[in-house]
Design a protein that fits this description.
Order of helices and strands: HHEEEEHEEEHHHHEHEEHEEHEE
CATH topology of the largest domain: Beta-Lactamase
Number of strands: 14
Helix content: 40-55%
CATH architecture of the largest domain: 2-Layer Sandwich
CATH class of the largest domain: Alpha Beta
């Protein structure tokens, strides 16, 4: 069953339940009120009985007949009125139900008037018995067939049933029509998902109007599609770039190994040179693979974070680099800086910035590493600087300027720096210094 039909049935069920509850409350209330109205009619008829008796006597006097007490039941509309002249005697009475002992007590004023349900000549009645007056000892009865009330209640019951069922069906129809309009964005979203599943086309976008939950879901889905499209595009570019970068060292390594297997083999005078070149190509491949692994590793969610002194990480990187790069002059200006992040990743990012400075600085050149309290690490070198055309691209993956293509490296070091910075909610920047050299900057959010 579709979601539209389920919503329609749910809406109809809610309305049906509400109408049923209302009917169950309304019917007893109306039944009680209707019975009370009919009882009030009977009481009113007995209250008017003395006037009715007076009218009978006046009519008899005008017609010249003897004045007598009426003994037959008088019909007034749907109400039957019976007069019982004093002395009231217990037992059957012509024209209506028998007189019982309680009637005698009511006639004598010992008991108050009362209602009863009785059957006469196959018809059920609601009967009210009261004294005609306070002194005569006579009785008057007023009765209405219970069918008068029952017919009205049966009609009311049928009407409530029809309203309940009809209201429920109408609610289902209206909910079905309304659900079609309300769920139209969901249908569009479903069509889009099916289209993406069938075609792998991640460029499809959905317009989102309004601020309700469906609009928010549509916007979230569109954002997810855009992010997924960017991710897939980045993966494809990474695979293409990595394939291109891997092809050259693999080709050279394969060629050198083939030359070693031909002719005199390892006894060939050129064998040491071929082995040395093969080892260099293998080292280049190892570096490239390691950088690819680090790029993927630091691009994922941070699994280990802690409060970290950025200045101490920078100091450790500089101390380690000084030990293997004695030809350069290192200077540090390390202000205390506390950040929350992955210490291994941040140390790798600072190390890559310093290694880039080492690669470009000439012998005797100066490298300055600075940290500030706002979470910024700056590395200045004394190399040839950065060409304006290269500035926007130096943090791109596999990007190497024409001058860098003759130097060792995979073109991933600075890309890893940017990946780490963005994972920590920070950023990177590069600028060419006015005199000579370059300045690379890494910034991450601080604590507090």
């Amino acid at each position: 069953m579709s979601l539209r039909n389920r919503l329609a049935l749910a809406g109809g069920a809610v309305v049906l339940a509400a109408l049923a509850v209302a009917a169950l409350i309304l019917y007893p209330s109306l039944s009680t009120r209707l019975n009370s109205q009919h009882d009030a009619t009977l009481v009113s008829a007995t209250d008017q009985a003395p006037d009715m008796l007076k009218a009978f006597k006046q009519k008899a006097a005008v017609s010249g007949t003897s004045v007598r007490f009426p003994t037959e039941t008088v019909t007034v509309g749907s109400t039957l009125v019976q007069f019982l002249q004093s002395p009231v005697v217990e037992g059957p009475r012509a024209g209506f139900i028998p007189v019982n002992g309680r009637d005698l007590l009511v006639a004598s004023g010992i008991q108050p008037p009362y209602f009863q349900d009785a059957k006469y000549d196959g018809v059920s009645y609601r009967v009210y018995t009261a004294p005609l007056d306070a002194k005569s000892g006579s009785l008057v009865r007023a009765a209405i067939p219970t069918s008068v009330v029952g017919t009205t209640l049966d009609s009311l019951e049928l009407l409530l049933i029809l309203i309940t069922i009809g209201g429920g069906l109408l609610a289902v129809l209206v909910a079905r029509l309304t659900a079609g309009r309300l769920l139209r964005p969901v249908a569009q979203l479903m069509d889009t998902v099916e289209h993406v599943t069938a075609t792998q086309d991640l460029t499809v976008r959905l317009p989102a109007r309004g601020n309700d939950e469906i609009a928010r879901l549509t916007r979230s889905f569109a954002a997810m599609m855009a992010a997924l499209d960017d991710s897939v595009g980045a993966q494809r570019r990474l695979v293409a770039d990595a394939s291109h970068e891997l092809r050259t060292p693999l080709t050279s390594l394969t060629t050198n190994l083939e030359l070693l297997t031909e002719g005199a083999g390892v006894t060939d005078p050129q064998a040491p040179l071929l082995v040395s070149e093969a080892r260099a190509q293998a080292a280049e491949l190892t570096l490239l693979v390691n950088d690819l692994v680090d790029l993927a590793r630091y691009g994922s969610a941070r699994t280990h974070t802690e409060d970290t002194r950025l200045d101490l990480l920078a100091q450790h990187v500089v101390e380690r680099t000084v030990a293997r790069s004695t030809r350069l002059d290192f200077r540090t200006e390390l202000a205390p800086c506390l950040v929350h992040g992955d210490p291994d990743a941040l140390e790798r990012a600072i190390g890559n910035l310093v290694d880039n400075a080492v690669k470009w600085s000439p012998d005797g050149g100066r490298i300055t590493v600075t940290t500030t309290a706002d979470g910024t690490v700056t590395v200045d070198d004394s190399g040839p600087g950065i060409a304006p055309a290269d500035l926007p691209h130096i943090f791109d993956r596999f990007y190497r300027s024409p001058e860098a293509r003759s130097l060792p490296g995979s073109g991933l070091g600075l890309a890893i720096v940017r990946q780490i910075a963005e994972t920590h909610g920070g950023c990177v920047a590069a600028e060419a210094k006015q005199s000579h050299g370059a300045r690379l900057r890494l910034t991450v959010p601080t604590i507090g």
